[in-house]
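Most newcomers find our protein records easier to grasp once they have seen one. To make this concrete, we reproduce a full record directly below:

…
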Amino acid sequence: MTAKNFLILLGTLLSIVLLVIVFRDLDWYVFFTTLKTVQLPLLFLAATIIALNVVLRSLRWLLVSRLPLAKYKYFWQAANIGYLGNIIYPMRAGEVLRIVAIHHFAPLEIGRAVTSSVIDRILDMIIVGIFSLLVFWFHGHRIDPNIGRSVVGIFIIAAIVLTLLAIFADYLHGLIQRFIAQEEWQRILQNWLLHALEGIQAFRHTNNILIVLFLTIVIFLLDYFWMWQIMSAFGWDLSFEAGLTVGVFLLLGSSLPSAPGYIGIYQAACVLALGLYGIDKTSAVAYSIVLQLLNFAVIGIQGMLVIVLYSFNFAQERQIDLSNISSQ
């Protein structure tokens, strides 16, 4: 069994176990009664914010790549393909698919596509670290301190990696160029590493770093806001802090291997997070179902529109191996 298949199997088993745990002893009468209380206008507001966040994330990715605004639509298309891939396939396969998609749509050299995507995710990790620290500060006495230390570690590592890449990009670029004279290394170094380092250099020299950081904070606050609005849709009088807590728990949970669409992860994360605010297990599971289905609906519709309108062969493109792209 390959490592990939093992992780898929492990993720599937974890999702099944979590589903069994959260649905065991569920009060189904309370579950369906809770769902009937949901206020639809607030769900529409939440759906609008989800769509807006895809717009903002696509803009941030464009700024990280330091490409003209005229290419924005390609980043929006690729982002939607990636999010749809994360719903359909396990192991966050959407991250690879969005790289393949931006290479397909823009087109963007594969090395720069990989680098821009990685930097984009490192920025997420840094901001997640900050918000996670807030959550652990709010609930530190009720959460295992080892989790808090792990989050701090991830935050520090992400910040260090991004800083070192920015500082040493020129040195690495020159070092790799010295190897290009060797013909057997020329193709892979030029198409992968040099383009990748050019992406880092572009990000370092961009005038949009403050805008990128501001956008990242706004994106996460909007994510927490729409999750909070769904709580209001259930009629719960909870503070914005509750939306922040659910969002952080979901992001931390999504780092675990799971079945496609983070099934089971959503439910367990919402039960744990909302339990800190006195929401019973049955109501928390009902909330998680609405949260997940709403997110899937918006991302699914947008992703399918991109596939249909912009001729992206989802089944074919997902089979493309990045090593094959680099040999083109």
Remarks:
- The chain has a mean pLDDT of 79.
- The chain has one domain: 26-326.
- The two ends are 30 Å apart (CA to CA).
